[in-house]
Amino acid sequence: MKIKFLIVFLFLMSSSFVFSAKYGKTDPDKLYSRALNFIEQERFFEAKKVLKAYTKSKPEDSYGWTLYAFSERKLGGLEKAKGLYEKALSLDADNKAALEYQGELFVELEMPALAQANLEKLNILCPNSCEEAEQLKSFIAGTAVK
């Protein structure tokens, strides 16, 4: 009886590992790739779920936190997104994507001075301009294509 139980237990454990590996639930690179695909398709709920798992497996990746915050923001979770952008920027204060998207969040939260501060930091990081600075500038001006 004990051996039967042990065999069933081992089978269930091994099959769950195989199934999770098969669908990329444990490989951080596959998770990140899946999240990018979901974001590209504007499937933010799915992206958020995948990025939550990704940031658990790669907690020091500022860009993972940035995308997690972006997905949360697109779903209307503005306060949660605010904390996630702060996490991303605590890991890399010069993360241009996080600065741009956090600036957009500040516009949505009617905090124009903070959005402007992010734009000024982007202008320092990109003295000859960059896509992130241009995007945030147009978002602040209200001319960005959303």
What can you see in these coordinates?
The chain has 146 residues and is mainly α. The protein has two domains: 23-81, no CATH class; 93-146, no CATH class. Helices cover 77% and strands 0% of the residues. Residues 1-24 have low confidence and may be disordered.
SSE blueprint:
Elements: H1 2-22, H2 28-40, H3 44-57, H4 62-74, H5 78-91, H6 96-108, H7 112-125, H8 131-141
**What is the string of SSEs from the N terminus onward?**
HHHHHHHH
Overall helicity: over 70%
**Class of secondary structure makeup:** mainly alpha
Based on Cα principal axes, name the global outline.
globular
Radius of gyration: 20 Å
Enumerate the spans where pLDDT stays under 50 for 5 or more consecutive residues: 1-24
Please give the count of helices. Answer: 8
Calculate the mean pLDDT score and round it.
Answer: 86
Largest sheet: none
Give the amount of beta strand, in percent.
Answer: under 5%
Number of domains: 2
What is the CA–CA distance across the termini? 62 Å
β-strand number: 0
Summarize the structure.
With 146 residues, this protein is mainly alpha-helical.
Index terms:
77% helix, 8 helices, 146 residues, 2 domains, disordered N terminus, mainly alpha
